[in-house]
Amino acid sequence: MAIRLSERKYVAELLHGAKIGEKYVVAGWVDTIRIHGKLVFIILRDRTGKMQLVVKRNISENAWREAKKLSPESVIGAKGILVESKAALGGREIVVEELVVYSKADPLPIDIKDHSKTTLAKRLDWRFLDLRNPRNQLIFLVEAEMARAAREYFYNNGFVEIYTSKIVGAATEGGAEVFSIVYFDKPAFLAQSPQLYKQMGVISGFEKVFEIGPAFRAEPHHTTRHLTEYTSVDFEMGFIDSYEDVMRVAEQAVLSMIQAGLERYGKRVREFFPNTLDRVPRSIPRITIREAYKLLRSSGVSVEEGEDLSSEAERKLGEIVLREYDAPLVFVTEYPWRVRPFYTMRKSDEPEWTYSFDLLFRGLEIATGGQREHRYEVLVKQLEEKGLNPKNFEWYLSMFRYGAPPHGGAGIGLERVVMQFLGLGNIREARLLPRDPERLVP
Ligand code: AMO
Predict the structure, then answer these.
(1) Ligand 1, closest atom to CA 194?
(2) Which of 133, 183, 221, 337 has its CA 20 to 30 A from that of 99?
(3) In sequence order, what are the beta bridge partners of 359?
(4) What is the whole-number distance in angstroms between the Cα of residue 94 and the centre of ligand 1?
(5) Phi-psi region of 152 (alpha: psi -120 to 50; beta: other; left: phi over 0)
(6) 5-103: CATH class
């Protein structure tokens, strides 16, 4: 008799629904082992949960001998009768008749039961083991769910999914934070954002496009909110009246991400992450950056008129908005022209300010967007004003000479949404394989 893994049932099925007294196959990782003379108790873990297996010497001498030698995190399969058991986790256990050890684990280099006993750096060195901890795995289930919700939102609202090149000939978001690569005999860069290509998607006639893909930033600083590679949820839409139209889409996309996270994982998430946002906000207030300066000043934070908000100012603003509007998210609009990229549309009546916005979630920027400049002559001037050479943007500029509608869009940082939703202390926790100035492996 051999165990057929194709007959395998998940732990969740056995704990809920499967028939008592029947024989089942289970398989997974050994969470813990306790040896009591002629009995060995194994807690088995699979992707759906944990349950107890009891291996009795008088039922299978072979299985009992194998079980006694098991080490935590070994991979096993077992076949046996499902019985009720008051003492067992979940009230049921399997009385094992056959046991197969597929892979025996060495002593573990990190504590995978309690993540707080290991530094984040070491956890990341051993990421595959770190993720055996259900808490850590849950972060990525939430992330997948949020990305799915965003994708579904865009599909349901007429956006076309596009896949743009990540090897590019020119930087898009300003010069400094771009990775250079060697592309045969030419210099090239890793895309900081699909910005120019998503605009191309609109101008090509798709009108509404989105992309969920990697973005690269040569961000030399060590902070808890920057990665050098992150997942960007980007969208772009044509024929808009103003950036208000863009904000409405960003608002709905982000709220549907939060809603999906709460609906699917809310209960489990609160068990591990007590600071998880506990409700879907009904809407997101909008304030201009000039109002934000005022609010900050009246709370004793010194801010320069016409400057970007520092991360400290953003954090403080998050607190103020939570207090004043009972809102965990806020749009800050009309950023100064001098801190926005060349493609941003300036306000017609106040050209030192722009039709743009940032979205803050619990005091951290999670998205940026706005209306784009679609008038060719103005765009050329803006490039020059930002010290960029229009020659490097020839293909981009040409799009604006052959019929470009008024348009706008936004980019949402997926890891930042997850981080702020769960209340994580470091963005690296929300990235499967984080890249920062030191880390390239694994
Ligand atoms: P921006 O540069 O503000 O705008 O980036 C958009 C969003 O991407 C996320 N983000 C990051 N996340 C982790 N690590 C980083 N180093 C990092 N840098 C950015 C943030 C940020 O809000 N093209 C514009 C978007 C647009 O206007 O459509 C852009 O890329 O959540």
Answers:
(1) 23
(2) 133
(3) 331, 367
(4) 50
(5) alpha
(6) mainly beta
How far the first Cα of the chain sits from its last, in Å, is 40
Answer whether 178's CB lies under 8 Å from 130's CB.
Answer: no
pLDDT confidence of residue 169: 86
The pLDDT-based confidence of 174 (bands split at 50, 70, 90) is low
CB 419 within 8 A of CB 430: yes
- Helix axis angle for 243-272 and 134-156, nearest 10°, is 150
- Measured in residues, the chain has a length of 442
The two tokens of residue 21 are 């007294």
Q: Please state whether 387 falls in left (phi above 0), alpha (psi between -120 and 50) or beta.
A: left
Ligand 1 test: best mutation among 198, 224, 236, 368, most atoms within 8 Å of CB? 368
pLDDT at 173 over 70: no
For range 29-37, the mean pLDDT: 97
Residues with CB under 6 A from ligand 1: 173, 193, 195, 217, 219, 226-227, 230, 232, 234, 365-370, 409-411, 413, 415-416
Q: What pLDDT is recorded for position 221?
A: 83
The answer to whether the beta carbons of residues 332 and 316 sit under 8 Å apart is no
Strands 92-103 and 49-56 turn out to be parallel
Q: What does the DSSP 8-state code read for residue 409?
A: E
Residue ranges matching CATH 2.40.50.140 in the chain: 5-103
- 125-430: CATH number: 3.30.930.10
The CA 335 to ligand 1 mean position distance, Å, reads 15
Asked if 51 contacts 82 with a C-beta cutoff of 8 angstroms, the reply is: no
Greater pLDDT, 207 or 391: 207
CA of 21 to the centre of ligand 1 (A): 56
Per residue in 232-244, pLDDT (tens digit) is 999 999 999 999 9
User: For the whole prediction, is pTM greater than 0.85?
Assistant: yes
DSSP string spanning 20-79?
TT-EEEEEEEEEEEEEETTEEEEEEEETTEEEEEEEETTT-HHHHHHHHT--TT-EEEEE
Tell me whether strands 208-216 and 364-371 are parallel, antiparallel or unpaired: unpaired
What is the structure's pLDDT at 299? 95
Mean pLDDT, to the nearest integer, of 387-410?
A: 95
If you take atom 30 of ligand 1, which residue's CA is the nearest one? 193
The CA 382 to ligand 1 mean position distance, Å, reads 21
Sheet holding 186-190, edge to edge: 167-168, 186-190, 180-183
Tokens matching residue 68? 């006694």
- Give CATH 3.30.930.10 domain extents, the chain: 125-430
